């Protein structure tokens, strides 16, 4: 008699079961999960003083992906709010995604000056895009045609990376929440009339 191997994606009988698809829009869960995972890995490196040189790749990728998802959520919600077609672009180019999100945020609240975070995000996105233009550099040791990933970079301070990303991620989360509230209000008004 063969023993049945359980699916790796099935519920178990212990306290480690994770809930999926429990909300209408799980966008926040995805972006926050990637951000939190990066933060936990940095905490591990700091507390154990080990694994710096191997965990740097997933940490950078996780942070980058969290930012990408936050920006895409802003685009998706902003387009709905402003009655524009489409969701978010499917590519991974932060340097193309952020200007689109920033434009939608400006359009959602016209005649307001840009918050100071916009210029900080502009600079950070450019720096990240210069190193990892299309979300491949921290994923693979070599690129297409055999080019080595992350050429010219020899060290990354994980604490500096975190110190740069965390305030920007908080600001983007606030933008996403603000747009969501405005969209919810708009939908309620439209239902009333």
How would you explain this protein's 3D organization?
By secondary structure, this protein is mainly α. It has five helices and no strands. It has one domain (29-184): Up-down Bundle (Four Helix Bundle (Hemerythrin (Met), subunit A)). The model has no long low-confidence stretch (mean pLDDT 91).
Rg, please? 20 Å
Query: For this structure, what is the CATH class?
Result: Mainly Alpha
Strand coverage percent: under 5%
Catalogue the unreliable spans.
none
CATH fold type = Four Helix Bundle (Hemerythrin (Met), subunit A)
Helical element count?
Answer: 5
Query: What about the largest sheet?
Result: none
Distance between the termini: 65 Å
Shape: globular
Order of helices and strands: HHHHH
Number of domains: 1
What class would the helix/strand composition place it in? mainly alpha
Helix content: 55-70%
**CATH-level-2 architecture:** Up-down Bundle
Strands, total number:
0
Mean pLDDT level: 91
Summarize the structure.
This protein has helices spanning 27-48, 52-81, 94-108, 116-131, 158-192. With 193 residues, it is mostly helical. The longest helix has 35 residues, at 158-192.
Topology:
Blueprint: H1 27-48, H2 52-81, H3 94-108, H4 116-131, H5 158-192
Helix pairs in contact: 1-2, 1-5, 2-3, 2-5, 3-4, 4-5
What are the defining features of this structure?
193 residues; mainly alpha
């Amino acid at each position: 008699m063969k023993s049945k191997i359980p699916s790796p994606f099935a519920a178990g009988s212990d306290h480690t079961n994770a809930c999926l698809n429990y909300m209408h829009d799980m966008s926040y869960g995805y972006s926050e999960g990637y951000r939190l995972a990066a933060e936990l890995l940095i905490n591990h490196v700091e507390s154990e003083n080990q694994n710096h040189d191997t965990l740097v790749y997933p940490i950078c990728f996780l942070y980058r992906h969290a930012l990408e998802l936050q920006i895409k959520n802003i685009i998706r919600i902003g387009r709905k709010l402003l009655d524009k077609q489409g969701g978010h672009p499917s590519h991974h180019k932060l340097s193309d995604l952020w200007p689109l999100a920033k434009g939608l945020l400006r359009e959602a609240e016209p005649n307001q000056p840009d918050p100071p975070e916009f210029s900080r995000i502009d600079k950070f996105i450019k720096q990240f895009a210069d190193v990892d233009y299309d979300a491949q550099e921290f994923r693979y040791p070599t690129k297409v045609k055999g080019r080595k990933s992350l050429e010219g970079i020899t060290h990354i301070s994980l604490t500096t990376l975190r110190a740069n990303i965390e305030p920007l991620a908080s600001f983007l989360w606030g933008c996403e929440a603000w747009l969501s509230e405005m969209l919810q209000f708009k939908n309620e008004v439209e239902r009333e009339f």
